[in-house]
């Protein structure tokens, strides 16, 4: 096994750790890197995770990205809403904008009435953030994504919470994983906090690429490297085609 680990593989490890302790829930990663991470978690620490083909079939096994596997159940669209409402799901979404309180935008740039650029719409972000743990994956960490405020709130952030409304009682923005580090919202007043920076990334680099102050940035630890067995699973079992390297700019780290 090579002693060189790529930044993409470190991001996969960080995404796998999103599911630590999840148990028997539905994992819904919405991009390649968190998808590899969820499957790595299932093969290592979280064997009870439910994973799907991205449409309606629940896998009994853990195939490679784009591969097939025996089917143990099905999840038609109407059933997804039951799972969302039950809270037994953890989605890892993308984001075009995230602010210091965890508000996420993937809908449009500009005002709601006169957007300058239309994107996906809010998709399931409002329901996701109010019903079950939600994390975000950002492959290119910069101040255009991490700005002072979002143009349109798609996923709900902590400053939107009405303590008198029980609908906000399950808000759990669990993690933000980027190509630079791992973050959560454990800073003052539920603001974004650095948990770890990837090997070779400095606090100054994160600060220069973030449009607001990140709590505990100078004291953040270092994201751990994958073990030999985790590297084998990533490279030979889950992602033998190396799709992860297309999503994260190549940076190698020696172990």
Automatic annotation (TrEMBL):
InterPro entries: NagB/RpiA_transferase-like. Transmembrane segments: none annotated. It comes from the Bacteria. Gene3D superfamilies: Glutaconate Coenzyme A-transferase. Belongs to the 3-oxoacid CoA-transferase subunit B family. This is CoA-transferase beta subunit. It comes from Williamsia phyllosphaerae.
């Amino acid at each position: 096994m090579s002693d060189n680990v790529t930044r993409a593989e470190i991001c996969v490890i960080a995404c796998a750790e999103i599911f630590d302790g999840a148990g028997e829930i539905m994992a819904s990663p919405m991009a390649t890197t968190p998808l590899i991470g969820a499957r790595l978690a299932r093969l290592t620490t979280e064997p009870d995770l439910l994973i799907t083909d991205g449409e309606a079939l629940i896998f009994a096994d853990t195939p490679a990205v784009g591969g097939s596997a025996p089917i143990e159940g099905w999840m038609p669209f109407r059933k997804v809403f039951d799972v969302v409402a039950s809270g037994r799901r953890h989605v890892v979404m993308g984001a075009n904008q995230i602010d210091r309180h965890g508000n996420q935008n993937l809908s449009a740039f500009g005002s709601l009435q006169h957007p300058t650029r239309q994107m996906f719409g809010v998709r399931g972000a409002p329901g996701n953030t109010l019903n079950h743990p939600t994390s975000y994956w950002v492959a290119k960490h910069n101040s255009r994504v991490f700005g002072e405020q979002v143009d349109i709130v798609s996923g709900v952030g902590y400053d939107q919470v009405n303590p008198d409304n029980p609908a906000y009682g399950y808000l759990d923005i669990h993690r933000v994983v980027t190509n630079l580090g791992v973050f959560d919202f454990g800073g003052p007043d539920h603001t974004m906090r650095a948990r770890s920076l990837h090997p070779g990334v400095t606090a100054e680099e994160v600060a220069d690429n973030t449009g607001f102050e990140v709590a505990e940035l100078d004291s953040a630890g270092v994201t751990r490297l994958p073990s030999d067995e985790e590297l084998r699973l990533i490279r030979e079992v889950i992602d033998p085609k190396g799709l992860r390297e297309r999503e994260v700019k190549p940076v190698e780290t020696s172990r």
